[in-house]
Amino acid sequence: MPITFDRSICCDLNETIKREWLVTNGLGGYAAGTVAGVLTRLQHGLLVAAPPGENTPQLLLAKIDEEVVFDERTYNLGTNEYRDGTLNPAGFVHLETFRLEEGFPVFCYHLGGLNGIMLEKRIWMPYGQNTTCIQYRVLRTATDDGFTYNKAGLQAVSSHMRLQRSAPHALTLTLLPFSTHRPHSTVPQGNSQR
Q1: Within-domain flag for 194
Q2: What kind and span of H or E run contains 15?
């Protein structure tokens, strides 16, 4: 039976923060997180692997926060919770659906008003590789002028993705990676010498 959560669960932080996903690569490496995108465990991250010469799995890529600009408005898809309980950004509010498809997490975000877009994010790890793949694609949008975008309207540009149609319906996706290199179950130590 497939696991699917609709908007009634996806927009509820208490529900999405306690639901987790996990993908593995067959080498002991993995990617894991919550549906909301909040890292609630030391072991959560997009790339945990044992590089050559390392005996302990290392957290190499903690997460990627996404910033989408569509119709001259900025949408943050990531969600971060700080020690004092502050959420910034709170991107889970844009999450329309979450599902596991053949064991891989698929997030669908609704951006814009009634005539907005659906942006899909898929995460997987190729078997036998210390690699995490993340794919973004526009599923649909209907605009006031009746123009419909689809995945064929995307053009990859470095760490940005843009719809090939010019403004006002341009879409820009900026990826903000948070990388580290620490044992996956060790509390990170900051520099307190300031």
Answers
A1: no
A2: helix 13-16
- Number of structural domains the chain divides into: 1
pLDDT digits (tens, 9 = 90+) for 88-99: 999 999 999 999
Mean pLDDT of 85-110: 96
Domain encompassing residue 108: 4-183
Distances (CA, A) of 193 to 81, 158, 188, 189, 190: 25, 37, 15, 12, 9
Backbone angles phi, psi at 153, to 5 degrees: -85, 10
Q: For residue 160, is it within any domain? A: yes
Q: Return the DSSP state at 165.
A: S
Question: Does the global pTM surpass 0.70?
Answer: yes
Model confidence at 103, pLDDT cuts 50, 70, 90, reads very high
Sign of dihedral through CA atoms 176, 179, 184, 187?
Answer: negative
Burial of 49 (0-12, 13-18, 19+ CB in 10 A): buried
Residue 35 lies in a domain: yes
